Amino acid sequence: MGQFDTSSLAGKLLLAMPNLGDPRFYKAAILICAHDESGAMGLVINHVLPDLKLGTVIQSLEIESNIKVPESLLKLPVICGGPVEIARGFLLHSADFEQESTIKVSPEIHVTGTLDAIEEMAQKQRPQNLLFTLGYAGWGKDQLEIEIMENAWMVSPATKELVFHTAPEKVWDKAMAAIGVNPHLMSDQIGHA
Q: Where are any strands of DSSP class E within the chain?
């Protein structure tokens, strides 16, 4: 795709522009977990599913275990990670937990997509930082690069502070501010100069 360098999008945040037009991505902040020449995969980190907690998800899966899952994990809010495979769960967590299937998104942020990770996390009392998402956002070959060139997305650094320690409803605004953009001055109209 020529002039636009997207070689380093894994570990970055994509911020939906107001003119995106897809309500599923309104003010979405998406952590890009994987990106290569075949496409990209990311997790929306700021669209909390109302009244849904990790404990409810665990109950619905009827996981039988002798391990006592801490109340703090059971009360963890569930985030809509994206519109693809919405029944598939992902654990976005700090680097103090790792399994063989864990993907290192950045030195501080990892993602694990296995059910047994919940039990292992409960046993080890780790990780310190955790988000649980259902579903993901995906792009085919060159699709994300084209959308970025069409100004559908802005790219921002993904810090541990933004991902794990910022209230979901404030992530988009704080990430915009981190790259020097005042979202209140942005128009949702598409135009040409």
A: 12-16, 29-36, 39-44, 48-53, 77-80, 84-94, 103-104, 109-112, 130-139, 153-157
**pLDDT of the chain, 193 residues: tens digit per residue:** 344 455 669 999 999 998 888 899 999 999 999 999 999 999 999 999 999 998 888 878 766 666 677 788 888 999 999 999 999 999 999 999 999 999 999 999 999 987 778 878 877 778 999 999 999 999 999 999 999 999 999 999 999 999 999 999 999 999 999 999 987 776 555 544 4
Q: Looking at residue 69, which CATH number applies to its domain?
A: 3.40.1740.10
Q: How many domains does the chain have?
A: 1
pTM over 0.85: yes
Instruction: Domain of residue 53: give its range.
Output: 12-185
Token pair in block for residue 8 = 């380093």
